[in-house]
Design a protein that fits this description.
Rna Polymerase Sigma Factor, Chain: A, 204 residues, mainly alpha, Arc Repressor Mutant, subunit A, globular
Length: 204
């Protein structure tokens, strides 16, 4: 039995028990997926406090909507889709906030998004190197901001979290071909936006 099949079977048993009123069973589902849900929320919101709040909202919604979950479906994909959609809704509600405010509230996930090593993690870097890292990180976040929420979500799920095309399709509720198309478009756009920093990035 594959790990994925075993995971789905365990999830199904826990969901069935939770639907009968077993809160402990739902608590086990939370323990199984709270990390990945937090990771998705943080990747979108870039603020740990907001991400933690949204994790709670995600599982609360999952609990109240559990009766709509199809027993033969993928619970992990279902709850991750709730988290992703909640993140997008939260970002839309923040559109009226002044430009740059989110940049001042950077979460721990930003370094993994930018694939830039944390200052101090690999030893002290020179001031010039720190400036280069900062410039590239800022350029990457600016480039990501030029993408639509759906395209950015595909890039984060694939290139940051390592999900397969099919897993992304399941989480977002779209065809696999649409995921591939969005990734192709998003990567081409990011490549164009970051072209001026290509040589600089090779030195970091």
């Amino acid at each position: 039995m594959t790990d994925d099949l075993e995971r789905k079977q365990v999830d199904t048993r826990l969901v069935t028990a939770a639907l009968k009123g077993d809160r402990n069973a739902f608590g086990q589902l939370i323990d199984r997926y709270k990390r990945v849900v937090f990771s998705i929320c943080l990747s979108h919101l870039r603020n740990e406090a907001d991400a933690m709040d949204l994790v709670q909202d995600t599982f609360l919604k999952a609990w109240t909507k559990l009766d709509t979950f199809q027993p033969d479906s993928n619970f992990k994909a279902w709850v991750c889709r709730i988290a992703a959609n909640g993140s997008i809704d939260k970002l839309r509600r923040k559109k009226t906030r002044r430009a740059g405010e989110l940049d001042d509230r950077v979460g721990a996930g930003d370094l993994s998004e930018g694939k830039v090593p944390s200052i101090g993690t690999y030893g002290r870097q020179s001031p010039l190197k720190e400036v280069e890292v900062s410039r590239i990180g800022e350029a990457l976040h600016a480039a990501l901001a030029t993408l639509s929420e759906t395209h950015r979500q595909c890039v984060l799920l694939c290139d940051v979290h390592g999900y397969s095309y099919q897993e992304i399709a399941d989480q977002m509720g779209i065809p696999k071909g649409t995921v591939m198309s969005r990734l192709f478009y998003a990567r081409k756009k990011l490549q164009a936006e970051l072209e001026p920093y290509r040589e600089e990035a090779s030195r970091v």
